[in-house]
Amino acid sequence: MTTELEQLAERLRAFARVRDWEQFHTPKNLAMALAGEVGELVAEFQWLTAEESGSPDPDALARMRTELGDVTLYLVRLADVLGVDLVEAARAKLDENDRRYDADLYRGSARKAPPTSNG
Amino acid sequence: MTTELEQLAERLRAFARVRDWEQFHTPKNLAMALAGEVGELVAEFQWLTAEESGSPDPDALARMRTELGDVTLYLVRLADVLGVDLVEAARAKLDENDRRYDADLYRGSARKAPPTSNG
Amino acid sequence: MTTELEQLAERLRAFARVRDWEQFHTPKNLAMALAGEVGELVAEFQWLTAEESGSPDPDALARMRTELGDVTLYLVRLADVLGVDLVEAARAKLDENDRRYDADLYRGSARKAPPTSNG
Amino acid sequence: MTTELEQLAERLRAFARVRDWEQFHTPKNLAMALAGEVGELVAEFQWLTAEESGSPDPDALARMRTELGDVTLYLVRLADVLGVDLVEAARAKLDENDRRYDADLYRGSARKAPPTSNG
C-alpha cells in the first residue's frame, strides 16, 4: 500500500520533472531550502509568548499551517532524493530516545533532557 | 485508518506525557527545537559539493538519516500541538505551487521560480 | 584605521589560506555553515523560559558565548568573501527601520512591528 | 574608544527603548529572530551553484547585503542583552581553532576539518 508521504514524494518528483528542476534539487540545495522555510516558520513564533504560541489567532495559525506545509514539502523531497524513509528514520530515533531518556530519571526536567532529542 | 504520521504523533504524545515534558512542548519551543535540528542537518551538507551531496558515503548518509529522523519528530510534534495536519497542509501548498508555477513558463529556470515554494 | 571586524576578517583570510581551505569558502557554503551555527545557538535557548533566557547560569552563558563567537566568525567571513561591509549594511538597515517604524505608532506593539526588522 | 559595534548596540538599545520593545527583546526571542533572518539569507543562496554564489548579480548582492545587515543587527542586539562581547568571543574561538586545526595536518581537507569551527 502506498502511504500518504510516498504519494507526496511522487507528486514532488513529477512537479520537478515537468519543470526540468531536477537539476536544482541536489540534497545540498534542498537542505538549504528546508532551512529557509524553517526560518520563516520560526519567525511566526518569535514575538509570541509561550502562552500565545499555544493559542494563535486564526490568521497566525493559517500562516503557520502554510509554513508547516512548505517545510513538509522540502523535507519529503530531500529524503526522497537521498533515498531515506522519513518515518523509519523517525521511528529509529524515537526508539533510541525511549531507551536514552528513562521516564523516571528525566521526569519534569528539560535541563538534562532535551525532549525527544539528543540534539 | 490511522496513518503512519498519526502513529508517530501518538507515540510522541505518550513520550512527553510519561516524562511530564508537555510543559516544555509549547509551539514556540518546538519551533526552536526544529530549527536547531535543521541546523544540524544543514551542517552535514555544508562542505560537500553539489555532486558529493548526491552520493554521500555510508557514514555521512547514516548521519543525514539520523538528522532527518530528528527533524521529522519535531515537525510532527509541532504540528500535533498546533492541531495542523501536515499532509493536508503540504498538499494545499503543492496545489498552490502547481497553479503558480506554470510548467511551460518556468521550465529549467530556478532564478524566477524557487522550486516547490513561494519562499 | 583598521576596525576590529576588519582585523577578524584578515585573521580568517589567513586561517583559510594557510590550510588551503579557500576552495571550500564559497558564499553558498559559508551561508550554510552560518545557518548550522545559528542552529546550535538557538538550541541553547529552546527549553528556557523567557525569564530564564535573560539570566542564564554560568555554564549556559559560556556555551552561548562560544556559539555567538562561531556565528560571528562565519558572518564576518561570509561578508568578507562577498565584499560586504557588515557595519555599513547594518546601519543602512537600521536607518530604514527608524523611518519605517514610527516610534509613536508602534509603541509597545510587537504584533504589527517585528522589532528592528522588516523580516 | 567606542567601537563601531558598540555604537550599533547603543543605537539598537535606543531603538527598542523609544518603542517600548525591550519587553520583547528577551535573548530567547532575539535568538529566534536571528534564526529567521539567517533563513532569509540562506534562501538567497539556495539555488545558486557554488560559482554563481561567488559572483552574484547586482540585485542578488543587494538583497544579500540587506540580509547580512539584518543578521548583524539581531546578532549585536542578542549579544548586548546577554552582556557578551562579540569580538572577544570570536577571537577566543579563533584562537581555539588555530590550536585545534594544525595547518599541516588539515591542509586541503574539509572532510575532517570544518573550516573555522568545531561545529
From TrEMBL, chains A, B, C, D:
<dbReference type="InterPro" id="IPR025984">
    <property type="entry name" value="DCTPP"/>
</dbReference>
<protein>
    <submittedName>
        <fullName>Nucleotide pyrophosphohydrolase</fullName>
    </submittedName>
</protein>
<feature type="domain" description="NTP pyrophosphohydrolase MazG-like">
    <location>
        <begin position="26"/>
        <end position="100"/>
    </location>
</feature>
<dbReference type="Pfam" id="PF03819">
    <property type="entry name" value="MazG"/>
</dbReference>
<dbReference type="InterPro" id="IPR004518">
    <property type="entry name" value="MazG-like_dom"/>
</dbReference>
<dbReference type="InterPro" id="IPR052555">
    <property type="entry name" value="dCTP_Pyrophosphatase"/>
</dbReference>
